[in-house]
Specification:
heterodimer, A: alpha/beta, Elongation Factor Tu (Ef-tu), domain 3, Rossmann fold, 2 domains, 7-stranded mixed beta sheet, 4-stranded antiparallel beta sheet, 9 helices, B: alpha/beta, Fumarate Reductase Iron-sulfur Protein, Chain B, domain 2, FAD/NAD(P)-binding domain, 3 domains, 5-stranded parallel beta sheet, globular
């Protein structure tokens, strides 16, 4: 097998794919909460992607990617046997895995995949794991079976009610609490607004929350300072100090603004790629 | 016969109007004629002050003599006896502080243009196929790992190889060169020069591995199981921010990020590459060092209305190279000297709209002899800006210090190392910005070469014990 080769690729939904990539050095070192940098080709961006799983024996790491911008579309256009130009990691600080008691693990969209290794490690550490999985609609709800296997309680929500409870993850959390569940800590990964409101609710409910932040990351190795976030009024660098931070202390609004910095460029880039892509197909 | 009274030759240069539209080299350099004229100015001093003043003691009179004899290959070999990155040094070394500053011609004449001669020699020797890369020494059977592929690690790697050790270089990024690649813009150091210098080191038999973050992918402890010694040249790290309100507004960059986007990721070619860089109409750069000049001059090439450098002291006190300040002035960069940032102001969308500054005056000299800026009361004023680049310094890269408990660090986060690079961990040596915080390419190279000598002693000492 070649370094950075896609060993298996499975499409989980129209725009979400799961990759096992041959990266034995990373597989040996990966811990829950860490990420890798992927780069599609020579002109490609360095894109941070959370590690979902790893298999030291096989030498593979698993990532799950939702095609949103040009880079992630290019990733998902790759086929089994193809390679990434660069795979670097593991990066970031691992999540502190210990016995908290009862933990709520909340994943929104592809955040479910990202929170999976944390849930798994927390379960192994003897916690009671309550998983709350949220998605816009049924097709985007991923890894339900995997999460059920490692959770004591699993609740699914969809915004449109096409599967599980209709509503948001915060509704499900409130409901569990109203039902008498005592929760000691919460781990939240998903879109910024979801993390913001979830952490806010946890604060109200007296649950210590942790959120995995997704700022724009460039080098990812503690050099450039692009990934700075405000935590408790102080500047922190997500690539080395995080990406997981105490939810109560994070300035989510600032994070949201900073992650949107290149929206216009991203849209233009994607459009250009799609046009050239369609054109190629048209010629065949 | 030497003729020092000849006018100092100028390398051909792109004119400022053209060059702010491209990232091609500003200084095109000498051709054969100008190089030979300039070489004639060298007195070939017996006790060469220039060599003594060079951090890596390049054999300057010797290489110039070889040039005059018409043997460019021999000239390159002379340089490469002590410096393995001649084309890089010739371009980015602050010669005015070293060789040219020490040249005996200073006073009566202008100093010999050693930097331009060095790059001419390296480039010409390479392009005409007469550059003879140093040969790897007789194998010692010892293995050394070099962490990072910037000037420090590259120099250490090449030197260790020359001494007969097997060497593997581990780089965290996807491409090699460290600060040469992500920090220094192509108009000062063309990318193909970096490629070629690295190729020379590869040709010596040094193995290069990219995307390996030592500390994370492999720990230093693990490296020591596979290698007999480790050299850490992991360089600079997280930027020092200015500590004023508004630094996380959209449109505020650290110089590291801005330069990495442009230099490593080639964002100036967006959308032909996928990494963008944001540039507004009015750019303000905070700081007065070489990174500030590089950032300002890169920004200028992205086509804004104005680029203004805000620096807390005066022009005389600026730590940037004089040549780079002049280049920036020529290219239309404006300066606000004796000015300090107070607050970055944003609009309702959290984007930068302006920066509030205040004026300073110069007070008494500090311990280093530089006059301390003293704020003038009630001197606040506003500069409109939609892009702000903070270039006021950086800390050493945090990854290895955090992941290697045996390595002691100082209060500023640099690795503690003795003269020669020996750290607090057996078999581990370090140099460059990881022990100095912010130093020049040349100091980093010097550290690498010096440490290679120490590592060689250490490795041979291991044999003696057996």
């Amino acid at each position: 097998m070649t370094k950075n080769e896609i060993v298996t690729k499975i499409n989980l939904s129209k725009d979400i794919a799961r990759f096992d990539i041959f990266a034995p050095l990373i597989a040996r070192k990966a811990r829950a909460g860490q990420f890798v940098i992927l780069k599609a080709n020579a002109a490609g961006e360095r894109v941070p992607v959370t590690l979902v799983d790893w298999d030291e024996k096989r030498g593979t790491i698993t990532v799950i990617i939702q095609a949103i911008g040009k880079s992630t579309v290019m990733f998902n256009d790759k086929k089994q046997g193809e390679i990434f130009e660069a795979v670097a990691g593991p990066l970031g600080a691992p999540v502190e895995i210990k016995k908290y008691g009862t933990v709520a693990v909340v994943g929104g969209g592809v955040g479910i995949a990202e929170v999976y290794p944390i849930a798994k490690a927390l379960k192994s550490a003897g916690n009671k794991v309550i998983s709350i999985l949220g998605a816009r609609t049924k097709d985007l709800l991923i890894l339900e079976q995997e999460m059920r296997q490692i959770s004591d309680i699993t609740v699914c929500t969809t915004d449109d009610g096409s599967y599980g409870q209709k509503g948001l993850v915060t509704d499900a959390l409130q409901k569990l609490r109203d039902g008498g569940e005592k929760i000691d800590a919460g781990f939240v990964i998903g879109p910024v607004p979801m993390m913001k409101f979830c952490c806010r609710l946890m604060q109200k409910l007296g649950i210590k929350s942790y959120a995995s932040l997704n700022p724009i990351i460039l080098d990812g190795t503690g050099m450039c300072g692009c990934c700075r976030v405000s935590v408790g009024g102080k500047i922190k660098f997500a690539c080395v100090d995080g990406p997981m931070f105490e939810g109560d202390l994070v300035d989510f609004d600032e994070l949201s603004r900073r992650t949107g910095e290149y929206k216009k460029e991203e849209a233009a880039c994607l459009l250009k790629y799609r046009e050239s892509h369609v054109c190629k197909v048209g010629l065949h | 016969m030497p003729n020092p009274s000849l006018p100092r030759q100028q390398g051909a240069r792109q004119n400022p109007k053209d060059r702010i539209k491209n990232f091609d080299p500003v200084v095109v350099g000498f051709d054969e004629k100008t190089a030979l004229l300039e070489a004639q100015r060298c007195l070939n001093c017996k006790n060469a002050r220039c060599s003594a003043a060079c951090p890596v003691n390049v054999r300057i009179p010797q290489f110039i003599e070889a040039l005059l004899k018409g043997d460019v290959g021999a000239a390159a070999t002379e340089i490469m006896k002590t410096s393995l990155l001649p084309a890089v040094c010739g371009r980015v070394c602050p010669q005015e502080n070293h060789c040219e500053g020490a040249c005996i011609l200073n006073g009566r004449f202008k100093p010999v243009a050693v930097g331009l001669l060095e790059r001419y020699t390296a480039d010409t020797a390479r392009n005409t196929g007469v550059l003879r890369p140093p040969v790897a020494g007789k194998s010692t059977g010892k293995r050394a790992a070099c962490v990072g592929s910037g000037p420090s690690s590259l120099s250490a790697a090449a030197e260790l190889r020359r001494l007969g050790h097997d060497v593997v270089v581990y780089e965290a990024l996807h491409d090699f060169g460290g600060v040469l690649r992500y920090g220094i813009p192509a108009f000062r150091l063309p990318r193909e020069i970096i490629e070629k210098e690295i190729q020379t080191v590869k040709d010596m038999g040094v193995i290069f591995e990219s995307s390996v973050i030592v500390g994370n992918t492999i720990t230093v402890e693990e490296l020591l199981k596979d290698f007999d010694a480790v050299y850490i040249g992991s360089g600079a790290g997280l930027p020092t921010m200015a500590g004023v309100p508004g630094e996380n507004l959209v449109g505020v960059y650290s110089a590291n990020e801005f330069l990495t986007r442009i230099n490593l990721m080639q964002a100036y070619k967006f959308p032909n590459v996928d990494t963008p860089v944001g540039i507004g109409k009015k750019v303000v750069v905070l700081g007065g060092g070489n990174s500030a000049m590089d950032a300002a001059r890169c920004a200028m090439r992205l086509g804004p209305e104005s680029v203004t450098i805000v620096y807390r002291r005066g022009r005389e006190e600026m730590p940037a190279r004089e040549e780079e300040i002049e280049n920036a002035v020529e290219e239309g960069v404006k300066f606000e000297f004796l000015t300090v940032q107070k607050e970055i102001l944003g609009n309702e969308n959290g984007r930068v709209r302006a920066i509030k500054c205040a004026r300073n005056k110069l007070g008494e000299p500090d311990a280093k002899g530089r006059r301390v800026p003293v704020p003038i009361e009630n001197s606040n004023f506003i500069i409109e800006a939609d892009t702000i680049i903070v270039a006021i310094g950086q800390k050493p890269n945090p990854v290895i210090p955090r992941k290697t408990p045996e390595l002691k660090t100082s209060a500023t986060g640099v690795l503690v190392a003795k003269e020669g690079g020996e750290t607090t961990m057996k078999g581990v040596f370090a140099g460059g910005d990881i022990i100095r915080s912010g130093a020049t390419v040349l100091m980093a190279m010097k550290d690498g070469i010096t440490a290679a000598g120490k590592i060689d002693e250490y490795l041979r000492g291991q044999n003696d014990k057996k």
